[in-house]
Specification:
This protein has about 475 residues and is mainly beta. It has 3 domains: about 5-155, Jelly Rolls; about 170-385, Metal-dependent hydrolases (TIM Barrel, Alpha-Beta Barrel), CATH 3.20.20.140; about 385-485, Immunoglobulins (Immunoglobulin-like). About 10% of the residues lie in helices and about 40% in strands. It is built from 6 helices and 30 strands. The chain has helices at about 10-15, 200-210, 270-280, 320-335, 370-375, 455-460, and strands spanning about 25-30, 35-45, 55-60, 65-70, 75, 80, 85-90, 100-105, 110-115, 130-140, 150-155, 180-190, 215, 235-245, 250-255, 285-290, 310-315, 340-345, 360-365, 380-385, 390-395, 400, 405-410, 415-420, 430-435, 435-440, 450-455, 460-470, 475-480, 480-485. The strands form 5 sheets. It has a 15-stranded mixed beta sheet that branches. It has a 5-stranded antiparallel beta sheet with strand order 1-2-11-4-9, with no helix packed on it. The chain is elongated, with a radius of gyration of 24 Å.
Length: about 475
């Protein structure tokens, strides 16, 4: 489903699917061969967007491979259709937050997968098959009022386990890359979730976009973070992350240790989101609401912004939902919340260019901790491509500040700002404060423009820039604020 093609009627559809009952297993049959064991489950799930089912099966000593295949009743209403999400948990358990039990997730991107000690389908974790009770995790998303029938087949093989899988995470720090502005894309997908690019193809696309880094953010799985060291060039940073795809909004967990996995099977109650957000921060990561203004069931952000460090204001090509998210972010700034704006491609396929847009971060070095720290401080601007650059400087008396910094000023003290933009032909540069636009300048035919402003701090509270073209309908670049704080 192409996100931009989904109509706002999705919100009404979601309300109609609010009634949820547990899926029912109606049949389970087991057969055995000389070196295989197979169990077939059949069931029916009622209409609903948030329901979970776990199909338990036993794995004996000496098992070498678990393979799962599925089938379900097709049904569609407009752009919405039945989906049977798939995942796998091992004998450590499948209760909420059980990272020890997690063995992979492919959602609705696949109808079959396999896991062994030596290899696994992308999205799943290779490793020893411990004896005990395992479970296929189902997340049926059913739009048919009559429900959805499904079948799942589990095959356990007993043979030579093969050579053990050896993780190869990407380096978290690149040598000889000091303080400066670094361009990246913090939201991309490969074949390790529902993208079509291989890891090598993703790296090539990022290099073509002249990026310095990207974050690996596969849906609800950390499996790609185990292999990026085999694909990362020596001069390119790959940040471990995850897109946590709940049924109540998506969020980016960025800068994770490569082994860390974040659960997604919770709603808006009981403080679950805050708990997992705190866990991400406790391991050095960053929490960002992903495309929170998308009017689609499951994507619309329902957790509030009190526990996020950043908001993905710009997702893929600029559109009405991005404009709505920009308004949400501005409201947070007016309320005094220092939450960082991000811009990312959310690229799944070659027709969705990596680096459109991109997040440009000022960091002390090109490393995961430094990029996370720069984002947390708000030392970030967004640009539609590597052609676009922005330089912002504000001052009061002898005190100066840049994007993300605080400038201490008295309420009546005059503040000056100088901004220079390049690579944006035919665009307007608009300076915003808490109360709205403060000043406007324009770029020339070659894309260069300068804005100068002088005013009182009490009225502004913060200063941020937007660069737009096409009668201000298309965003080209966006800065995070320079904050004006009481002296």
């Amino acid at each position: 489903m192409v996100r931009r093609s989904v109509l706002r009627s999705g919100a009404a559809l979601a309300a109609g699917l609010a009634g949820m009952l547990p899926a029912r297993v109606t049949r389970a049959e087991t057969t055995s061969g000389e070196r295989t064991w197979t169990r077939r489950f059949a069931g029916r799930s009622p209409i609903g967007l948030e329901q979970w089912e776990y199909l338990a099966f036993d794995v004996g000593q000496g098992a070498s491979r678990v393979s799962v295949s599925s089938a379900f009743e097709e049904f569609a209403i407009s752009a919405f259709s039945n989906v049977l999400d798939l995942g796998l948990f091992g004998p450590a358990g499948w209760d909420l937050g059980n990272a020890d039990g997690f063995r992979g997730w492919s959602g609705g991107a696949r109808r079959e997968f396999t896991v062994s000690a030596s290899d696994a389908t992308p999205g799943y974790l290779a490793g020893p098959l411990e004896p005990g009770t395992w479970a296929v995790a189902l997340g049926p998303r059913v739009v048919n009022p009559a429900g959805m029938r499904w079948e799942v087949t589990v095959t356990v093989e007993y043979a030579d386990a093969g050579r053990p899988f050896e993780p190869a995470p990407a380096p978290v720090r690149l040598p000889d890359r000091g303080s400066g502005w670094y361009r990246g894309d913090l939201h991309v997908h490969t074949v390790y979730s529902d993208g079509t690019r291989t890891p090598d193809e993703m790296v090539a696309a990022a290099r073509d976009a002249r990026l310095d880094f990207f974050a690996s953010t596969e849906h609800n799985t950390n499996s790609a973070n185990h292999i990026w060291g085999r694909h990362a060039p020596e001069d390119f940073l790959i940040i471990s992350g995850e897109e946590v795809t709940t049924r109540h909004g998506h969020w980016l967990a960025l800068g994770l240790p490569w082994q860390h996995w974040v659960d997604w099977r919770y709603g808006t109650g009981a403080g679950s989101f805050r708990r997992y957000a705190a866990q991400v921060r406790n391991v050095g990561g960053l929490v960002a609401a992903a495309h929170p203004g998308v009017p689609m069931p499951g994507s619309w952000w329902e957790f509030g912004f009190g526990a996020v460090d950043a908001i993905e204001v710009w997702n893929s090509t600029w559109g009405p939902d991005d404009e709505a998210t920009l308004g949400m972010w501005h409201g947070q700034l007016v309320a005094g919340r220092r939450v960082t704006a991000l811009g990312n491609s959310d690229s799944h396929r070659p027709e969705q260019p990596v680096g459109l847009p991109q997040t440009v971060v000022h960091a002390d070095e090109l490393s995961t901790p430094a990029i996370v720290h720069g984002i947390r401080r708000g030392r970030v601007y967004l640009a539609e491509s590597a052609d676009v650059s922005m330089d912002v400087r504000a001052w009061a008396g002898t005190r100066t500040a840049g994007v993300g910094d605080s400038l201490a000023v008295s309420p009546t003290e005059a503040v000056s700002l100088h901004a220079r933009v390049s690579g944006a032909p035919g665009a307007a540069i608009v300076l915003h404060g808490a109360s709205g636009p403060l000043s406007t300048a324009h770029t020339d035919a070659e894309g260069t423009g300068t804005l100068r402003w002088r005013g009182r701090s009490a009225a502004a509270k913060f200063l941020r820039l937007e660069v737009r073209r096409n009668a201000l309908t298309q965003l080209v670049a966006l800065s995070n604020p320079v904050w004006l704080s009481p002296a």
